[in-house]
Amino acid sequence: VSIVMGVTDPDAEPHRRQSMVLVPMDSPGVEVERQPTVFGYQDRGGHPQIRFDDVRVPVANLLGEQGGGFAIAQARLGPGRIHHCMRAIGAAERCLDLMVQRSQARAAFGRPLSEQGVIQEWIADARIRIEQARLLVLKTAWMIDEVGAKAARIEIAAIKVVTPALLTGIADRAIQLFGAAGFTEDFPLARFYSMGRWLQIADGPDEVHRRSVARAELGRLGPGAVPEPFPFD
Ligand SMILES: Cc1cc2nc3c(=O)[nH]c(=O)nc-3n(C[C@H](O)[C@H](O)[C@H](O)COP(=O)(O)OP(=O)(O)OC[C@H]3O[C@@H](n4cnc5c(N)ncnc54)[C@H](O)[C@@H]3O)c2cc1C
Q1: Phi, psi values for residue 58, rounded to 5°
Q2: Are 89 and 163 in contact (CB under 8 A)?
Q3: Dist. CA 114 → ligand 1 center (Å)
Q4: pLDDT 10s digits, 85-127
Q5: Mutate which of 203, 206, 211 for ligand 1 pocket (most atoms within 8 A of beta carbon)
Q6: pLDDT (tens digit, 9 = 90+) per residue, 32-45?
Q7: pTM for the whole structure
Q8: Å from CA of 214 to ligand 1 middle
Q9: Tell me: the pLDDT tens digits for 127-147?
Q10: Residue ranges lining ligand 1, Cβ < 6 Å
C-alpha cells in the first residue's frame, strides 16, 4: 500500500490544499517506472518513481480529513527527524568501534595505527563529537516529551543539522583508517557515509533547518535590539 499525498483543492489556504489517500500498489493505473538508487545503494524499500494514471480508490481510503495532508506530514516529521538523529548517533558509534578495532589490529610502518598521533586525534574527536551530539539529541527528546514536538521544533531543526554531518565526518575518517577495505561492503562504513550524506537532505535540507534556527535566534531579542557599548570604567 502506498500513501499518496496530492493536491485536492488548489484554491484552499496553502496548508489546506493537500490530502493523503491509501492506494494499494496493485490498483489499475499504478506503475513503478524505475527504482533509482541512493548513492548507489538500494535503500530499504527503495525510492521508486511511480506513475499514477487515472487511479481510483474508495473515499474511505482518505487518511484523516480532506485538506489535512500537510498537517499529517508535519505531525510525522518532528518525531521522524529525531528518530533519524538517534540512528545516526548509533551508526557513528559503530564507526568509532570499528576505528578502534582497526587501529589496534593493523600495523603499518612497524607499529599499530593506534600509536599514530593523527589516528588518536581522529578517535578522540569522534568520541567528543558523538557525546556533544548525543546530549543535544537527549535534550531534544526530553523537550518533545515535556512540551511536544511543535514547541521543540528549533531543537529538532538543530539536531537534524548536527547528526548527519557528524556521521558523514566520522564515517569518512573511518573509511580512511580502513584503507581500501573501507570502500567495500565487507564493512558498513561506505553505507554509513551515504546515510549521513542523504540525511543532510531527507526530511528537509540543512539550509532550511539552519534558516529556522537563525529566525528563532534573530527574533529572540526583539526587532529593535541594538548592541550596547561595553561599559569600560
Ligand atoms: C534518501 C532520501 C529519502 C527520502 N525520504 C522521503 C520520505 O520518506 N518522504 C518524503 O516526503 N520525502 C522524502 N525525501 C525527500 C526529501 O524530503 C527532499 O528531497 C528534501 O526535502 C529536499 O527537497 P527537494 O529534493 O525537492 O530539493 P529542493 O527543494 O529542490 O532543494 C534543493 C536544494 O536547494 C537548497 N534549498 C532549498 N530550500 C532552501 C531554502 N529555503 N534556503 C536555502 N536553500 C534552500 C538546498 O541546498 C537544497 O538541498 C527523501 C529524500 C532522500 C534523498
Answers
A1: -65, 155
A2: yes
A3: 39
A4: 999 999 999 999 999 999 999 999 999 999 999 999 999 999 9
A5: 203
A6: 999 999 999 987 77
A7: 0.91
A8: 19
A9: 999 999 999 999 999 999 999
A10: 38, 43, 47, 198, 201-205, 207-208, 211
Percent of the chain with pLDDT over 90: 87
Spatial separation of the C-alpha atoms in residues 102 and 180, rounded to whole Å? 13
Mutate which of 161, 191, 197, 201 for ligand 1 pocket (most atoms within 8 A of beta carbon): 201
State in Å: Cα 205 to ligand 1 middle.
5
Q: Which of 83, 117, 84, 98 is nearest to 170 (CA)?
A: 98
CA distance 73 to 70: 5
Nearest alpha carbon, ligand 1 atom 6: 202
The predicted pLDDT at position 107 comes to 96
